[in-house]
Every structure is written in structure tokens, then in C-alpha cells.
Amino acid sequence: MVDSTNDYASLHVIYDDSTHDYASLCVIYDDSTNDYASLHVIYDDSTHDYASLQVIYDDSTHDYASLLTTYNKMLNNWLSPIPDNPNRQGLDAFHFGRNIDMFSGEMPNLESTSVALIGLENKGADAIRTALYRMAFAFDGLKVADLGNIRKPDIQFIIPVVRELIESNICPVLIGSDPALVQAQFKGFFELKDWISLAVADERVAVNSADPADPDAYLNPIALDKKTRLFHLACIGCQAHYMPPAVVNWMEDRYFECLRLGRAKSDLSELEPVIRDADLFCFQLSALKQAEAPAQRKPSPSGFTVEEACQLCRYAGMSDKLRAFGIYGYQPVRDFYKMGAESAAQMIWYFIDGFYNRKNDYPVSTDGLVEYIVDTNGGDHQVTFWKSSRSGRWWIQAPVKSSRKNQRHRLIPCSYNDYKLACQDELPDRLIQAFKRFD
Description:
Layout: H1 71-75, E1 79-80, E2 101-102, E3 115-119, H2 122-133, E4 144-150, H3 155-167, E5 171-175, H4 182-190, E6 196-201, H5 220-223, E7 230-238, H6 245-253, E8 257-260, H7 261-266, H8 272-276, E9 280-284, H9 306-318, E10 324-328, H10 339-356, E11 369-376, E12 381-388, E13 394-397, E14 411-414, H11 416-423, H12 429-436
Parallel strand pairs: 2-4, 3-4, 3-5, 5-10, 6-7, 6-9, 7-8, 9-10
Antiparallel strand pairs: 1-4, 11-12, 12-13, 13-14
């Protein structure tokens, strides 16, 4: 729309509620150049109301630099800045808190940012970032931002923040106390991709198909709702004495993975392909021993050690497929000696360390993948493996036709041991179950 009066001060974003469409945003016209090319990005998000957002036009300079639809301005609607507190005082040049961008006054420029920290509840997130800031920053060239805390710890309020960061190729690291907030992590990505693979580290499988309203079954809205299109669920570190038989059967019927604690601890390296297969990874602090992280909702004497948890988080960070990471279940009121905050901070540090060491493997790039074909069943069938020359990691190709919606999952991460077993005419149950997910 060309305004003959050159009065743009009252121009509003036009939003069609029936179609969730911003395409009708009025064209901004530069009268001096007769040019429409300076129209800024049109933002399409069906979950927000920008009806009161105004375009500010400087008629004297024909300058649109103050347009309020910029990405950073939108994040201000959802996030509150990091408060001024002692967590940044006394830091040296090498400390983590001295080498990242922070939302402490104005939203930092997120151009080229790779990882963004977001607190989902103030007190817990502030305690963890206090511990994290005092660790060394060993990630030269990696741009990390701390975007403060969410203004409202509500699942529907968090979803658009997760979505916007992922869509901007920024990996969100979410810090929350309520385990149910993993739903926001999932649904934020679901608005961009469907048929999602989710990996969860927890002492239980938090699903109760008999009682969808069970408050402890925080995965119910993800796992039981067919509209979410959950492609795969991998539960890591589950303890058999907490698992009802009905839950075990429910997982097996869907060819999902349930990796019990004893098996997981026996060889952590075998968990790397499981985590690498996930789009999203969430770590519930209840997966740790109480002695390792006492500030939990339901502490247990058994579980992973912090060292093991850090290794799993590093695996997650190294996965080029993984788009978001979250730590949940931290209870600051129970953390008398700050051991829980320290444990969570270490896990975040090692996730970022893994991210820093990504190799741009599949699915980012198929360059450097070497094909290995193995004959099975006496030569009647062939199985195709792929090995990355960049990282030495392995994948197996699902030997079934895959619909377009599942195409991005068709290369299933595996280990060198899996390849060696295939050469001996054996395939691990994990891979056989994975193939069945494509039926």
C-alpha cells in the first residue's frame, strides 16, 4: 500500500486471525527512491498477537532501522533480562561469564549465535548460571548467549521461544525445575518438524497410558497424543524397580527404546548412537544419584554419576541432528550446598563442549560418508552401513522403503560394534526394532 501522505507513523501490522497470515503487512515505500526493496522481514507466527506493533518511519531520512518487527525486539516479549546479582562479580577473563553475550539490559545481537541459554524458572536457573559462569570458557569462536529467564513459566508461553531459536539455527539450552516443561521443548520443535525422535534420561518412563491425567507422567501429552507424531522415544537410565509392566509393554509395542540403568552404565559409548538419533534430548536430574545431585524432586540412591551424565550430555552436543537440549527437575530449595546447581552447570558445560566439537556430519552434510555393504542371511540380503571419515561415527540404512515424512530418520546411528556383528551375520535387537518403526 502506497501512502500518498508519506505518514507512516501509525502504520500497524495487519494480522489475519483466520489464516494466521502476516502477508498483508503494508508495503513500506521510500518516496525518495520509489523503492519497495527496503521492506523488512514479515514475521509469521500463529501463536502471538502483534496487533499493537507499529512501524516507525523517519520521514526526514526515509530510515526504517527502528522497525519494531526485528527478531531481537520480539524476544523481549517473552524473556526478562538477567538480574544484577553476584553471579557475574569477580570473574576473570577466562571465565565462562566473561565470554558470552548476555541479555542484561538490551537484547544482544544474535547474529551468528550458536547456543542460547534460557531459564524457565528464575531461582533455579539463576543458581545454575552462577555456577556455570565461574567455569572456564574453552570454546574459542563459538558464540554463546544467555537470554535470561522466561517471563512466564507456562508451556504455551515457552513454545514460541523454542521455535524461534531453532528456526534461526540457534540451539536452545533450557533450564527448568518442572519436568513437564519438556513438553514446550518438544512442541516448539514440532511446529517446525513432525515425526520427532526424543531421548530422555530419567529413572522412570514418565508415561501412564491408563491415566492420561497422571501429573507424574509428564510425557503423556507427547507420547499418547497421536497428533504430536512422535516417531521414536528413547528412555535412558530407567530403573526396573520403578517401571510397571504395562509401561514396558507399551514401549515394546511401539518399538521404542528403554535402556535400563545397569546396561547403560556398563558401556556408555553404546549410548552415543541412541542419543545421536534424537532431534531433542532432555535430562531429568532424577536420573542422577541423590549423592550426586541432592536437589531433586524425587531423589533416589541409584542412578548415573555426574561424570557419566556429563558424558551423555557431551554426546548430545556432538550430534549434528540434535536441535535442542534441556535440563529439568532442579529444586533450588533443597540445594543446601549448591551441589545440584554445580552438577547441572557441569552438564551444560559438557553439552556446549560437544557442540563446539561438532563435525558437520549427517544430516548436516553427507560429504565424507563411506558406504559399506554387508551380506546377511547367507548372502540373501544386504545391509548398508555408512561411516563418516570426519568423525569415525557409523550409521545403518533402514533396508525398507521409507515415506517422505520419515526420510530424515532413514540413516540410523549405530556403532562400530554393530557393524562387526553384522559382518558375523548378526544384528543387535536395537537395530531390528529400529527397522520395524518404518513399517
